[in-house]
Amino acid sequence: MDSLHAAAAKSLAMRTRLHPAEIAFWLCAVASYFLLPGKHLILSEIAIMALFALSVDLLLGYAGIVSLGHAAFFGVGAYVAGLLGKYGYGEPVLGLVVGGFGAAVFGFATSFLVLRGTDLTRLMVTLGVALVFYEIANKAGFTGGADGLQGVMMGPVIGLFEFDIFGHVAYAYSLIVLFVMIMAARRIVGSPFGLSLVAIKGNPLRARAVGVPVNARLVGVYTLAAFYAGVAGALLAQTQAFVSLDVLAFHRSADGLLVLLIGGAGYLYGGVIGAVIFKLMQDQIAALTPQYWQFWIGLFLVALVIIGRDRLIAGPAALLNLLRRRS
Amino acid sequence: MLTILFDGVAYGMLLFVIACGLAITLGLMNFVNLAHGAFAMAGGYVAVVLANRYGVPFLLCLPLAFIASALIGLLLERTLYVRVYGKSHLDQVLFTIGLVFMSVAAVDYVMGSQQQFINLPEWLRGRIDIMGVGVGRYRLLIIVICGALTILLQSILSRSSFGAKLRASVDDARVARGLGIPVDRIFAITFAVGSGLAGLGGALGAEILGLDPTFPLKFMIYFLIVVTVGGTSGVTGPLVAALLLGVADVAGKYYVPQIGSFVIYTIMIVVLILRPQGLFARAR
């Protein structure tokens, strides 16, 4: 029995150990700060999108919950951070934490809605919740409605680094936040909590039968994902010093899903890879036809499904597996 | 008060005609078709172009809008949808969102992003007075057409041999195939008719719902609410749900404009929590 425990502990430890490929990835990310100083604005957008996709990954890739309204939490985080900045509490790190917790509160409150019913009901309920949030932001006075939240003033990061118009500080800040959040996420998904999520995704009935408290775990992961989305939203509000209704729009939820699926769900870095590909693609296509960029996203989505997601993401996933087995 | 009720009923009838195709694909065939509104938009634009640019009589535009959307539906069903039937809900969602994005951008490209207005003939404008209630002529026409369609649909589904075959195919496609029912063809026809009805509804609704390239996104939630709240036991559930929704929406926007649009979302969320299968679903 003891040897079984030891083996289980060892295999768990294996899962959470930092992989050489990950170290290489982060070295590249740090190098990009020094090698591409002219691209820092778009790079920080990529980092924020990656963080949002990471949050979708926790829900979809690990717990198997399909949400069409994840932008709701992104938007809450953005508005909380924006409002803090507007009313004189412009310390970025504090704003991130408060934004994240604000979103987590709403995530927890609405998580009970997704427990009932099948995929289809979940889709509808998450979509409905996001629409309600959108309407609130549209109608409420304190959000600035359709004009957006004006006059957001951000202080320097930890009192030292002032945001600049080239996005140098913004990128470094976003990258560090992304790093911290991914490191935390890999601890979480490697923990018994994370493993039980995978079990629930595989077969909720059996998971319940072996003693996993399914509903509590789903509430937990939903709240956690809302926290992540809230931090991503707060990051956007701080680096852009502006919040518009766009943070709650339906297409943001759709983009989050799309980015994750381009990169592949269920291994944390999928969102990052997807965000890089997505933004580069957007940059290229938008340069050709700025107004009709949506058409090409649509075409991409249709092709993604018809050709088969598995085949498109099989490449990176197989590579990762190969590396994992080697080590 | 009664006028609001009347307007609400007309609105609900429209929603029902557009959504009933979705009720069949989503409810019976278990396919999440978020792009259903795109077919309604197609019908709307066909009618607008025919009526405004070519001067086709309004009443003739309606069947033409039906046929055009049905043909588009049939074409897409045979080429694309049929490959996605068996896939997961996530795939279906992605696929149909993709179609929505494409249709929005394509219509924007061809027709421009401004709102379209359809030229109604003189005899459809204005209101008539029936026992003290101001009744819009156009809304009366909508109620008459949609009411007739509802009765027709209900009788086809429950009385005709086509309806019987459809119900059999939906309940158990394998056994139905074994009995020699051409399941694929029945699904294709059903899909085409559903798309055609959406197109007809879009053409009729251009005046009331408004018509611009964002139509499929703007009304997606409404159609989905009709179906999910109504459940899928035939067409009665969605009909009742659509009428409720129509009246609640019109009344909400009239009496409490500040919170008007929350009303329907809240109704949907509450209903789905209490009855995930919808209000009028069969017990399974």
What distinguishing features does this structure have?
heterodimer, A: 327 residues, mainly alpha, 76% helix, 0% strand, globular, B: 284 residues, 11 helices, 3% strand
Q: What does this entry show, briefly?
A:
The complex is a heterodimer of chains A (327) and B (284). Chain A has 327 residues and is mostly helical.
Structure description:
- With 327 residues, chain A is an all-alpha fold.
- In chain A, 76% of the residues lie in helices and 0% in strands.
- The radius of gyration of chain A is 20 Å and the shape is globular.
- The model of chain A has no long low-confidence stretch (mean pLDDT 81).
- With 284 residues, chain B is mainly alpha-helical.
- Chain B has 11 helices and 2 strands.
- In chain B, a hairpin with a 2-residue loop joins β1 and β2.
- The mean pLDDT of chain B is 81.
- Classes of the chains: A mainly alpha (327), B mainly alpha (284).
User: Which strand order does the major sheet of chain B show?
Assistant: 1-2
Number of strands of chain A: 0
The pair of chains with the biggest contact is: A-B, 42 and 41 residues
Mean pLDDT of chain A: 81
- Describe the main β-sheet of chain B briefly: 2 strands, antiparallel
Shape of chain A: globular
Percent of residues in β-strands of chain A:
under 5%
Q: Identify the overall geometry of chain B.
A: globular
Low-confidence stretches of chain B: none
> Rg of chain A, please?
20 Å
The helix/strand order of chain A is HHHHHHHHHHHHHH
Report strand % of chain B. Answer: under 5%
Helix content of chain B: over 70%
**Helical content band of chain A:** over 70%
| Number of DSSP strand runs of chain B | 2
- Please state the structural category of chain B: mainly alpha
Termini separation of chain A comes to: 27 Å
